Each structure stands twice: as C-alpha cells, then as structure tokens.
C-alpha cells in the first residue's frame, strides 16, 4: 500500500453473484489491483434494507469472499472487508446526513422506483445514498469501479463531498466513477438488466452443468436457423462479446448476419467461451467456499487495513465540525 491511487467498491451480499456483477464490477475491480491500491468491501449494512434472514446474510458474505478469492483478488496487498466491521462509516453517515437535503434523497432512483411500485420505503432505503457516499469518502477513495446503475450514487457522493468541503473546509477527496462502457448493462435471461431482483441471472461460479443450462435459457427471437440475425440486439451475442477477442466477435457477427447459424449453436459457442474463463475460478471457489477459517482470516486482515484509514478520516471530520 502506498502512493498509488486508491480504488474502492462495494457489493451487496443479497444473493448469488452473477455475470452482470462480474462484468460490471468484480472483474474491472480485480484488474485495478495492478495499478491501484484497492479497498473492496461487502456491503452488509446496505443488504439489511432487503435481507431479513441472518444466516442467509452470513452465508452470502462468505460466498462473495470466496468468489473474489477464486477470481484472483490479492488479499495480502489489498484490503477486502465487511462494511459493518468499520463502525466509523456509520458515524460519518450521521454527520453527512446533517448536511444532506431531503430533496436530494427524493431524487435518487432506488427511492423513486420503490415509490412508483408502491413499495414500503424504510429510512434505510431512503438514506441509502448517504451511507454509500460515506463508504467511499471514509477511505479517501480516488476511483470507484461500478456498473452503470450506480452512476447517480456517485454523483450524489461528489455533491455531498463538495458541499462538506465548502461548508467546513477541505476534508474529503472527490472521487470519480469508473464505468466500463462496453459492458455498461449486461442483459439477463429475459433481456432485461441482469439482476438478482428480477430472477433472470446466470450465476457466476455455479457448477458447470447448471451454468450451461442457464446460458441455454437466454431468450432470443424466434428466427429459424436459415434466417439472417442481428447480433446487436441479441443477448447471447452481448454476453459473448464480453468474453471473446475482437476477431472472434467479428467472426460470430458475420455468421449471424449471413444466416445459417441457429441460436442453439450460438448459445453453445457462448457457453464454451464463457466457461473457458470461468472454469479455473469455479474449481478454486469450490475448494475454499466452506473453509470459514480462511474466509474469516481474509475479512479480518482487510478490516485491520481499512480501519486505519477510516480512523484518520473520521478524526479529520470530527475536528472540522467541532466534535
Ligand atoms: P443486483 O442488481 O443483481 O442486485 P448489485 O446491485 O448487487 O446487483 O450490483 C453489484 C455491482 O454489479 C454494481 O456495481 C452494479 O453496477 C453491477 N451490476 C449489477 N448488475 C449488472 C448488470 N446487469 N450489468 C452490469 N453491471 C451490473
Ligand atoms: N450500492 C451498490 C450496489 O447496489 C453497493 C455499494 C454500497 C457500493 N456502497 C458502495 C458500490 C460504495 C461502490 C461504492 O451495487
């Protein structure tokens, strides 16, 4: 750890991680290890807005830790931890809440969606963006790799940091989002955004058979084998593109346009390409998923690294506001 820019991101332990999480957040986040000091955490406080089963919450947390381990996260040199192991983040949330206008929260997408669907809105869901801003600001983060759906949360974070700095003097680093353009939103089995809440996911490190079955279930139009097909509107092609090289992508696009390629064959090709990348990680995942001693060790060492920075920042903030 040292002078490299700091990259931070979080993921909620709300279910099985899927290909959208992988391409939108996990993969780019892990790649940043090469050039950045990274702080990644499991957003278990955030998950409390929807997960009500304590055992499930704990198991989901281990699941994500094992997934990051299997995909090559270097826990020695980077911090990987539970959000709830850093109590300074909730202290900062109160302080920032006091300079956050209710109107800003009312414009947040998650809140607006819940209102539109007539769902009950807890205070946790309503003030979710403040907690997320604090997750980022408490570690002096420079960059935040996330999927497109988190863009607004990053804008809110920057607004709050700028407002605090303006009111009390420089305390926060202003972070920037890193959003992979190519993979901005991965479609799910039904063509909508792949999301745990839509039940349309392809689980990332599921056993091979189950993984293949999910890929074969991707919805396509009903064109016959002979008909030319449009790669740009096809979910199978959209996924394939994220895993294949440029030449392979061009070759498959040509076969789509020429006709003679059935969706069954396209899906099989897609499965093989995805599987080539995920086979190795899947094996490592299976070996370590139930080794709770190891997984706890990873989370504890991450906590110790993260807490040092969180303490520095909270001290700075307390001083600025007069506590
Ligand atoms: P979900 O919508 O399945 O509950 P999360 O909200 O836990 O997913 O998202 C975790 C991370 O994965 C975020 O950075 C988010 O932007 C990214 N992500 C989730 N779904 C997708 C998707 N379909 N395409 C690209 N990125 C995604
Ligand atoms: N809100 C993010 C999601 O739903 C998870 C998250 C919480 C996060 N805190 C964060 C992401 C801080 C990046 C930085 O996926």
What is the secondary structure topology, with strand pairs?
Elements: E1 6-11, H1 19-31, E2 37-42, H2 44-47, H3 54-70, E3 79-82, H4 88-97, H5 102-106, H6 109-116, H7 123-126, H8 128-137, E4 143-145, H9 151-168, E5 176-178, H10 208-216, H11 235-243, H12 246-258, H13 263-288, H14 292-321
Parallel strand pairs: 1-2, 2-3, 4-5
Helix pairs in contact: 3-13, 4-8, 4-14, 8-9, 10-13, 11-13
Residues 11-12, 14, 20-21, 23-25, 146-147, 149-150, 183, 185-186, 193-197 line the site of adenosine-5'-diphosphate.
Strand order of the largest sheet: 1-2-3
The ordered H/E elements are EHEHHEHHHHHEHEHHHHH
Got a strand count? 5
Q: What is the distance, rounded to the nearest whole angstrom, between the alpha carbons of the first and last residues?
A: 30 Å
Ligand roster: adenosine-5'-diphosphate, tryptophan
Structure description:
The chain has 323 residues and is mainly α. Helix content is 54%, strand content 7%. The protein has helices spanning 19-31, 44-47, 54-70, 88-97, 102-106, 109-116, 123-126, 128-137, 151-168, 208-216, 235-243, 246-258, 263-288, 292-321, and strands spanning 6-11, 37-42, 79-82, 143-145, 176-178. The strands form two sheets. It has a three-stranded parallel β-sheet with strand order 1-2-3. α4 (88-97) runs parallel beside α14, α10 (208-216) packs antiparallel against α13 and α11 (235-243) crosses α13. The radius of gyration is 21 Å and the shape is globular. It starts with 5 loop residues before the first strand and ends with a helix. Bound molecules: adenosine-5'-diphosphate and tryptophan. Tryptophan binds next to β1 and α8. Residues 9-12, 43, 46, 132, 135-136, 144, 146, 150, 153 line the site of tryptophan.
């Amino acid at each position: 750890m040292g002078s490299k820019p700091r990259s931070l991101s979080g993921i909620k332990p709300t279910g099985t991680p899927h290909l959208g999480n992988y391409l939108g957040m996990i993969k780019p986040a892990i790649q940043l290890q090469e050039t950045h000091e990274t702080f990644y955490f499991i957003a278990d406080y955030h998950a409390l807005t929807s997960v009500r089963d304590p055992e499930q919450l704990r198991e989901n947390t281990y699941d994500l830790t094992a997934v990051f381990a299997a995909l090559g996260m270097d826990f020695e040199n980077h911090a990987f931890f539970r959000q709830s192991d850093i109590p300074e983040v909730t202290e900062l949330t109160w302080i920032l809440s006091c300079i956050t206008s209710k109107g800003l929260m009312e414009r947040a997408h998650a809140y607006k969606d819940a209102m539109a669907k007539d769902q009950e809105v807890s205070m946790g869901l309503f003030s979710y963006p403040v907690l997320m801003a604090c997750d980022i600001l408490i570690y002096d983060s420079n960059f935040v790799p996330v999927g497109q759906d988190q863009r607004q949360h990053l804008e809110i974070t920057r607004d709050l940091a700028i407002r605090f700095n303006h009111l009390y003097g420089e305390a926060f680093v202003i972070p920037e989002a890193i959003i992979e353009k190519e993979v901005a939103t991965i479609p799910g089995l039904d063509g909508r955004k792949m999301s745990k809440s839509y039940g349309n996911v392809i689980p990332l490190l599921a056993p091979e058979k189950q993984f293949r079955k999910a890929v074969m279930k991707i919805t396509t139009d009903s064109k016959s084998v002979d008909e030319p097909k449009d790669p740009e509107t096809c979910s199978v092609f959209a996924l394939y593109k994220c895993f294949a090289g440029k030449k392979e992508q061009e070759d498959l696009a040509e076969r789509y346009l020429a006709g003679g390629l059935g969706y069954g064959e396209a899906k099989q090709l897609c499965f093989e390409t995805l599987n080539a990348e995920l086979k190795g990680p899947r094996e490592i995942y299976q070996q370590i998923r139930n080794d709770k001693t190891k997984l706890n060790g990873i989370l504890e060492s991450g906590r110790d690294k993260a807490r040092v920075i969180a303490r520095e920042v909270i001290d700075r903030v307390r001083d600025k506001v007069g506590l």
